[in-house]
Amino acid sequence: MFFTLRNRLFLIFTCLLTIPFILLSIIIPSWFATIIRDQAQDLTIEMMDQYLLYVDSITTQAEDLGKQVLINETTQEWLRLEKENVADDETLLMKNELRSLLSSMMVNNSNFMSISILLYDGTGIWGNNPDLDEEEWFQDFIEHEQQFAKSHIDQLQPYPGEINSYILPLFDTNTLVPSGIIKVNFPSDLLEKALNKIKIGQEGRAYLIDQKGSNVFQAQVDLPHNILKQGLAEIANGYQQKGLIEADHNSETYLMFFQKLPIGDWILISEVTESDLFSKVNNLQRNLLLTSGVVFMLTIVASFMLSSTITRPLGNLAKAMGYIERGDFTGAKRFMPTIKSHNDEVGYLINVFDRTIEQLKKLIETEYEANLRRKDAEYKALLLQINPHFLNNTLEIIGGLAVQGKNREVMNVSVYLGRMMRYSLNTKSNVVKLGEEVSYIKSYTDILKLRYEDAIKVEIDEELQTKRFPIIKFILQPLVENAVKYSFIEKSSAQIYIKTEKVQNNVYIVVEDKGIGMSEEVIANLAKEEMDDETITVLESKGNSIGLENVIGRLKLYYGQDFSYQIKSEKNVGTRITLCINFRGDICDEGHNHGR
């Protein structure tokens, strides 16, 4: 039905209008994404290079100031006096001269830099710091030789706020013995404000970090820990001074641009997610796809309007023929008045088909009633094969127990037999609940347990949802009887497993044993008989095959195409028989595995 006129028109409109829009919505955003990615990389590297020059200019100025202070005669003279413990008046005078020198340098500096000098014991030009050894920046300098300190607060510097510092050893230029430090401070804002200008995307940010991933400034690095860790590992293992690292986190791809600074171990990174970087491209793609959807809907409307005058009545006629194909003549007859056509040729075709349905319906109803009466007779003949056979077997069990003098067991078997006979002699209906059929088989297996004692094991797994399912009588007992019979042929024990299960619209009934199994020839003959007419085969068996064939024959007669079965058997291993009944009319999947 795919190549109808309406479908052809729809296909043509789709190819001409919808497909180009869909292709454009894929190709154009991908092209834009490549361009944006390249431009973002170039722009970011350019901004990072400019920032590097800016940082280099500030740090170079700090280094120059520190070196000037170190080699200045006033600094060296003050250091000599402090080491020789000269009189306080002379030392104080020299300290004031050094303060004047440092003040002059700070005033002439354009970047608000401040300079402080501290001896290792905490004595300083601008004041004393007895906790010098506990300062983090001082520990980094002493233990790791970090001359550029991260952002911190220094109470001895004249300017308030956070600062970064350049630290160099204070030593006598004659003996080269270090006695303290010279600390050149510059406001963190100088570097931080310039860093905030490096931004790509809507939410991308730049950071100045050390090799451990700690921010040079006080703010936290707002980047997933595993992304930062992976990036630092690649930077440490590589030889490049700058580049791009890509990493994934929570279904998001992060782009991390980096550049190593010649200042200590500082690293400049700028990060952005692909979704943020390509947000405008993604919006463009969504708009194009939305447009494609609108065009697609317009295509449907156009094809519908152009083809409705001819294809609609023909399509409805095809639906009516579908009812006929499924055998639903009443549905087809009910559907025919809804077919309207203003075309004379199509209208004539509809009228002829309507009359044909009426004639076929009458002929089929007549034939159906005749077949129904025949099948009812066949079904009752099949059902009558069960009871005598079962009764004979049960009486043999009672007789065997009586001979052994097991009176209690004989009483129990009689009780079980009474329950089963009440079930068997109830002729009001041949259809019972599956739970009743399972209760019946429990009485039967209780009789078997009394006879065989420990030699037989029966396990029944009954799903609660299947208890109320309507089923025809006596479908389990022949299967269980055969399972027991063929288990004891070559073995001294029998293991029987019975299971009922509901899966979607299918009810599965499984009987499994560990007996001698069935040969492939027997299974093939069952399949062949099913392809022919299994009902005739069973009726002509004259009682010689009243087990599996009987059950399959009765189920086929009653459920028709809604019944299917599966047999899996292996010689000397066992047999599993699965009966499947679909209670909505769909053919069940015979490949479904319901064994243990």
UniProtKB/TrEMBL annotation:
Keyword Nucleus: no
Location within or outside the cell: Cell membrane
Superkingdom of origin organism: Bacteria
CDD domains, per database record: HAMP (cd06225)
TM spans (from-to): 9-32, 288-306
One Pfam family from the record: Cache_3-Cache_2
Alphabetized UniProt keyword annotations: ATP-binding, Cell membrane, Kinase, Membrane, Nucleotide-binding, Phosphoprotein, Transferase, Transmembrane, Transmembrane helix, Two-component regulatory system
Domain HAMP: 308-365
Membrane topology value: Multi-pass membrane protein
Gene Ontology molecular functions: kinase activity
InterPro entries in alphabetical order: Bact_2-comp_sensor_kinase, Cache_3-Cache_2, HAMP_dom, HATPase_C_sf, HATPase_dom, Sig_transdc_His_kin_internal
Protein name: Histidine kinase
